[in-house]
Specification:
Blueprint: E1 23-24, H1 36-43, H2 48-52, H3 58-68, E2 75-78, H4 80-92, E3 98-103, H5 108-115, E4 119-124, H6 133-139, E5 144-150, H7 162-174, E6 178-182, H8 194-199, E7 203-208, E8 221-224, H9 227-236, H10 244-254, H11 257-280, E9 284-286, E10 292-296, H12 301-310, E11 313-314, E12 327-330, H13 334-354
Parallel strand pairs: 1-11, 3-4, 3-5, 5-6, 6-7
Antiparallel strand pairs: 2-8, 7-8, 9-10, 10-12
Helix pairs in contact: 3-10, 4-5, 11-13, 12-13
This protein binds pyridoxal-5'-phosphate.
Length: about 350
């Protein structure tokens, strides 16, 4: 049999919890989702004929091009942005070459390094949770094929300045590497870097409809890059990469600016509410960008996670030394944040007292 030894070290954690009835603050989905009325309206278009027809991504892509103010030729839609990342590795991740990213970061990057046999050069976070951009630059040497800049990064929401991104792109270009700018959390960051993808042939910006746009179930993402790069993506993608429901919901949402604005505002207000509550109760927390933040509870993290789960609330923890005494919480509306905080604070106080 073909040697699959390189897959042995890949760690995939499959959570079998049925998450439907939980307040899900563990995966940076939108806790509230889209307005029901918007969904009901779209349902009218889901006819027998619609379901019987193979998807056509053209109307979605044209709407997206107008929304982003880019050319249609700069875009392709993918089955979630996760798939876009995979295609970047398939296309540009030379076997035996090096992939550069900060660490910790979104876990699929490490998985694709293993699958496509790239070495992962990890730029470790400093203890104060800042990134050494100079170290990223230094690590871009001849053996590098892909550099990933997550703006903001997940799980720690640091962002890059325009100047930092530009210098990294130039250095990568000099040695023939591509730069993935992962903007999964676009809309929760001060700025996006789409213009770099239009300007430089070695830059690929990827975004998703899973976070701000609250459509994680449908698996819709996209790539914005030079038309030459998009043509490569099209060569390796299945005939129908994205399903018709995802394309329909995506298009309708792009046409509804009021909902997008409201999703953003709700998020900002919810973050303010949570910060105030944390400050009043003297909690140490780390908030940067993205729809998530870290809180350092007073009690034991593992016990807290379990007790929150018993109260139907899911949150995320990390094993990395710099994050291990903290919990990561997805942020949502003020009401959701108040509800989370009341239960979190009560459990945390009780558990601390019992020790
Ligand atoms: C930084 C980052 N990129 C990409 C993804 C993939 O998102 P999706 O496949 O839902 O588009 C995630 C998901 O959490 C993420 O955090």
């Amino acid at each position: 049999m073909h040697d699959l030894q390189h897959l042995a070290t890949i760690e995939r954690i499959k959570d079998t919890t049925n998450r439907t009835n939980f307040l899900r603050l563990d995966m940076n989905e939108s806790p509230e989702g889209l307005p029901q009325e918007f969904i009901e309206n779209i349902k009218k278009d889901i006819t027998a004929s619609f379901l019987a027809t193979y998807p056509n991504d053209e109307p979605f892509l044209q709407t997206l091009a107008r929304f982003l103010n880019v050319s249609r030729e700069n875009l392709c839609a993918t089955n979630g942005s996760d798939m876009a990342i995979r295609y970047c590795f398939e296309l540009f991740g030379r076997e035996g070459s090096t992939f550069v990213s900060v660490y910790p970061t979104f876990e699929m990057y490490a998985v694709y390094c293993n699958i496509f046999r790239l070495k992962h050069h990890k730029i470790l976070y400093r203890d104060d949770l800042t990134i050494d951009t100079h170290a990223i630059l230094q690590s871009i040497t001849d053996d590098v094929s892909i550099v990933a800049l997550l703006n903001p990064n997940n799980p720690i929401g640091n962002v890059y300045s325009e100047n930092e991104v530009e210098i990294i792109i130039k250095k990568a270009k000099d040695i023939g590497a591509i730069v993935i700018i992962d903007e999964a959390y676009y809309g929760f960051a001060p700025q996006g870097f789409l213009p770099f993808a239009l300007e430089h042939e070695n830059v690929i910006v990827i975004r998703t409809f899973s976070k701000l746009f609250a459509l994680a179930s449908l698996r819709l993402g996209f790539v914005c890059a030079h038309p030459k790069i998009i043509a490569f993506f099209q060569k390796i993608m299945p005939t129908f990469e994205v399903n018709a429901l995802a394309l329909l919901f995506g298009q309708r949402l792009l046409e509804n600016h009021a909902i997008i604005e409201s999703l953003q505002q709700t998020q900002q207000q919810g973050r303010k509410t949570l910060i105030q509550l944390l400050q009043q109760a003297h909690y140490d927390y780390q908030i940067m960008f993205g729809n998530y933040l870290f809180i350092r509870p007073h009690s034991d993290v593992a016990t807290l996670v379990q007790k929150l789960k018993e109260q139907n609330i899911l949150i995320k923890t990390y094993r990395h030394a710099i994050l291990k005494d903290m919990i990561r919480v997805t942020t949502g509306s003020p009401k959701t944040m108040q509800h989370f905080f009341n239960i979190f604070h009560q459990i945390d106080n009780q558990t601390t007292r019992n020790h």
